[in-house]
């Protein structure tokens, strides 16, 4: 572990509870609220089990967030999970995490969001579903263009989308609860396909995803020992309440069987039933803007991860991905890599499968991070910890059990996707070897090492 000099620049501790809560809620609240209720319902036998899945997903996320908080305080450097893995397991494991973000999680999440946007867009304008990938590419291209203009413009887009996504959420929850008259509990989905409850939980974790980001800024908090657990617990309890509320509202408008049949269009159709065609269409526009905000957030953050890895010469043709556009000062090429991979993935798999694969892949590394808490306690018993995970060791054990359940569920339900995800992740090992040991020796491929 690197020693810090007393006169080295330190992170500014300006983040309070409100800012920390906004990170949790802002990163997580979005497309999952509108697109995942039908997917969770499809993987559940009835509406009660679907609502239970949302609660279980919240519990796993809370346990995971509280566990990562201890590492965030122990290693208060920018980078979050990457730093935790690097400090505990070494640079190679941390590199594989970055590789996975670049080639699985990032394109998977962006492809899924583009697919969800396309589904609502095609329904709104009566476009055949076989154009979903093309519409998704257009949405990605728009966001990449905004990011290529400049980070300030991308920030404006994010603020607008964050505000707009609250409107359809509020309308669907309030009017669905008020006007809907359907029964909520113990209503069968009438699906005949064999499903697994673990897939329902994985689907909810897409909606909760984003909680890990708050642990990465622990070193910039005024009082991380107090603020971190409050932000994690408060933010995720708020999110779970919102998600359960919108599920109940949609179930009161559409039966579980109708939700499953409509798939990604369930929220939009529920809005049309509540507000009529034109009112429902306006809500659909709000949903699309919300998804654009998600796309923008992930492209902004993940392109910087690709850029950082390329600067370290950890990707093929790193010189291309580490290039900064002269006028906008943004990593445009890194954004384009994400866009191309996301479009290819969306051509092969639908949005729900892409999001499941992305969540499965990232929770493998979350599992390693949860285990790292036990390793750090053993290897660094005297280290100062202003925050310790509550109810140790039970809380991290719950987080570990949740991660193992997610991994088991993916292997049991979609073994091919699980094997391909693990294979793509491990493919980073020979690539790193070639980059660091072989290519520098070849004339014309030499890249200076940082």
Report, as a whole number of angstroms, the end-to-end distance.
Answer: 18 Å
Helix share, percent = over 70%
Residue-averaged pLDDT: 82
In DSSP terms (H or I, runs of 4 or more residues), the helix count works out at: 18
Strand content: under 5%
Radius of gyration computed on alpha carbons: 22 Å
What is the chain-wise order of helices and strands? HHHHHHHHHHHHHHHHHH
Query: Which regions are unreliable across 5 or more consecutive residues at pLDDT < 50?
Result: 1-12, 441-450
What is the total tally of β strands?
Answer: 0
Q: Give the biggest beta sheet.
A: none
Shape descriptor:
globular
Relevant terms:
disordered C terminus; 18 helices; mainly alpha; 450 residues
Describe this structure in words.
Helix 4 (81-89) crosses helix 15. The protein has helices spanning 17-28, 31-42, 47-74, 81-89, 91-125, 132-149, 151-179, 197-208, 212-215, 224-253, 256-262, 266-311, 318-321, 332-348, 351-379, 394-413, 415-426, 428-438. The chain is built from 18 helices and no strands. The longest helix has 46 residues, at 266-311. The chain is mostly helical and 450 residues long. It is globular.
């Amino acid at each position: 572990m690197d020693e810090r000099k007393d006169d080295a620049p330190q992170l500014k501790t300006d983040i309070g509870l409100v800012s920390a809560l906004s990170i949790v809620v802002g990163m997580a609240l979005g497309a999952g609220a509108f697109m995942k209720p039908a997917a969770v319902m499809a993987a559940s036998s009835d509406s009660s089990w679907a609502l239970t899945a949302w609660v279980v997903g919240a519990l796993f996320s809370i346990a995971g967030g509280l566990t990562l908080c201890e590492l965030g305080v122990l290693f208060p450097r920018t980078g979050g999970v990457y730093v935790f893995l690097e400090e505990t397991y070494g640079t190679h494991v941390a590199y594989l995490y970055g590789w996975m973000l670049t080639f699985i999680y990032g394109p998977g999440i962006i492809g899924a969001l583009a697919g969800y946007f396309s589904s609502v867009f095609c329904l709104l304008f009566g476009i055949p579903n076989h154009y979903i990938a093309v519409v998704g590419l257009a949405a990605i291209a728009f966001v990449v263009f905004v990011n290529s203009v400049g980070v300030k413009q991308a920030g404006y887009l994010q603020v607008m989308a964050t505000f707009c996504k609250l409107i359809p959420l509020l309308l669907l929850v309030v009017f669905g609860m008020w006007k809907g008259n359907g029964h909520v509990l113990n209503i069968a989905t009438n699906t005949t396909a064999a499903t697994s409850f673990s897939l329902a939980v994985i689907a909810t974790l897409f909606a909760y995803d984003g909680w890990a980001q708050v642990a990465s800024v622990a070193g910039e908090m005024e009082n991380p020992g107090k603020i971190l657990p409050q932000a994690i617990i408060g933010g995720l309890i708020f999110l779970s309440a919102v998600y359960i509320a919108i599920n109940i509202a949609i179930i009161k408008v559409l039966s579980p069987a109708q939700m499953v049949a409509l798939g990604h269009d369930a929220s939009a159709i529920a809005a049309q039933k509540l507000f009529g065609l034109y009112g429902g269409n306006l809500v659909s526009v709000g949903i699309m803007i919300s998804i654009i905000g998600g796309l923008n957030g992930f492209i902004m953050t993940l392109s910087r991860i690709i850029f950082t890895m390329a600067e370290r010469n950890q990707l093929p043709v790193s010189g291309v991905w580490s290039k900064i556009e002269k006028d906008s000062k943004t990593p445009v090429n890194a954004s384009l890599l994400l866009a191309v991979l996301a479009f290819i993935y969306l051509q092969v798999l639908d949005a729900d499968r892409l999001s499941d694969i992305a969540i499965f892949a990232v929770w493998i590394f979350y599992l390693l991070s949860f285990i790292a808490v036990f390793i750090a306690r053993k290897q660094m018993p005297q280290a100062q910890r202003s925050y310790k995970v509550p109810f140790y060791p039970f809380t991290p054990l719950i987080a570990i059990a949740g991660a193992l359940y997610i991994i088991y569920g993916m292997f049991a339900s979609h073994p091919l996707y699980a094997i391909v995800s693990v294979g793509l992740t491990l493919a980073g090992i020979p690539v790193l070897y070639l980059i660091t040991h072989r290519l520098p020796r070849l004339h014309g491929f030499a890249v200076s090492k940082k």
